[in-house]
Amino acid sequence: MVKLDETSLPGVGLRYDFDGKFGKRVGVITHRDGRRELFVSLREDPDSCAQSIVLDEAESEVVADLLGGSTVTRRVAQSMQDIEGLAMDWLPLADSTPFHGQPLGSTMLRTRTGASIVAIMRGGGAIPAPGPEFTLRAGDIVVVVGTAEGVTRAARLLNGEPEVKAARAEKALAETP
Amino acid sequence: MELGQLFLELGGVIFLLALVGRAAGRLGITPIPLYLLAGIALGALMSLGNAPEEFIHTGAEIGAVLLLFTLGLEYTSEELSSNLRANRQIGLIDLALNFTPGLIAGFLLGFTPMAAVLLGGVTYLTSSGIASKILRDLGRLGNRETPVILAVCVIEDVVMAAYLPVVAALLIGGTLVAVGVNLLVALAAFGLAFFLALRYGHVLSRVMNVPSDEALLLGVLGLVLIVAGVADLLKVSAAIGAFLVGIALSGEVAERARRQVEPLRDLFAAVFFVFFGLQLNLAEVPAVLLPAIVLTLITGATKFTVGWLGAARAGVQLRGRFRAGTTLIPRGEFSILIAGLGLSLAPSLGPLAAVYVLLTAILGPVLSRFDAQLAPLLERKKPEHKVPAPGQISR
């Protein structure tokens, strides 16, 4: 699991960074005005940026799609091949969900449960690989992939109901080969 | 005066500023010191009529208000309170190290105590405008030392927000009791407004957020000037009123207001610096040159120490510490603002502040640019310092 640091930059926005396996620090700055800045540190001076790339909102969506999209395909393919220990579930957001109108990133689902949201079903259509800024609504169906335990915890987290927890747990376990 | 002549003179001044701004862009430095120089040159070379002078004066006051308003917009109230809690220590070190030299220099130069307090303010405040410009221009927002630099700026801005009303109350003078009452009124008004801005800012933000850009600009500008006016009538300092409005606005409306008000701010802030330059007497500059240089060296070193210590605490290495220290050196808009309050108290305060801002605003960015070359010089010295350390531990 990558250890992500979050730092507030007053007057600018938020900075997320981590130490990449290839030996440099990599990070993203989310500017208040919606721009994203992607940077990588200098090898001999890990505190500074060797290069930074500023992306506007549309561009950063494309990059996020490129980076996240491949994960989605891989994960879905994996679940199709019935990999042991992998569970996938369609979790409807109840009216009582605390995340109605909240961005998907605010659920911190991946960090908290280890499960990933690979798609959202809304109004009969599917939105594959939604970004962290995607706004959730009650009534959405969230497609989650993870371990059986992770999916159960995701269901609990998304709806915040103890009853759902038990029901989902059984369902998720039943679907796990 | 004829309208045509007024336009001609104002147009001339603004066009001169445009040229100065282009030159600054070419040289890669901030235009603030050059605006000051342009003001001084204008004052020395030609005398503007009364009408342009009056317009420039009012424009300068609006400039100060808009500078502080946009500064307030930059920060959300959560950022302010979390920053204040997390970085108290470095904030106090900063205040002690950088206010004191100005205060002492004021007494040494024979200023009145009040003017010395103002000079302390002049040397204390880093220009957050110049600092953030350095960070953006050199692509350093992702650097590890950057949060430290920004945090110091944020704390200084809050300290200034409390300092200005106090100074304003002290400047009214009078008997000890009157001063005390003024001080209490100012602090109470400031505290109440600060509390309201933090607590109910979101309500104001919702009300002000109209879909039309035009209505938003007019609404925000009107509100800022009204609050600034009320603050000025209460003797709390107009600029601080505007700062608090900026803090109260947050979220979408803040982002939109910033985009709308920024061009206006750029215009009036330029006028603000020119006006300050215009008021100065060129003949007084040689006399303050030496004190300004000494003060630049001392407070340059103390500011550097603050950045160095803060970055070291954040686990940043040598070069990053050097960058943090040098980025904090430049003083700018706030120093000029504070010096402007005391022009009648000590005639040499104005020229001193102008020369001082000029020197620090050039020194800081230049040093900051050469971190790769200069920081290793400090590294070589370090082992020498460290030699006695093992002995100390064994004792």
Name the chain pair with the biggest interface and residue counts per chain.
A-B, 22 and 29 residues
Please tell me what the overall shape of chain A is.
globular
- Based on Cα principal axes, name the global outline of chain B: globular
**Largest sheet of chain A, order of strands side by side?**
1-2-3-4-5
Distance N to C terminus of chain A: 25 Å
Low-confidence stretches of chain B: 382-395
Strand content of chain B: under 5%
Give the helix/strand class of chain A: alpha+beta
> What is the makeup of the main sheet of chain B?
none
**Helix and strand string of chain A, N-terminal first?**
EEEEEHEHEEEHH
CATH architecture of the domain at 59-169 and 256-376 in chain B: Up-down Bundle
Number of strands of chain A: 9
Q: Would you kindly provide a brief summary of this structure?
A:
The complex is a heterodimer of chains A (177) and B (395). Chain A has 177 residues and is α+β, with helices and mostly antiparallel strands. Chain A is built from four helices and nine strands, in the order E-E-E-E-E-H-E-H-E-E-E-H-H.
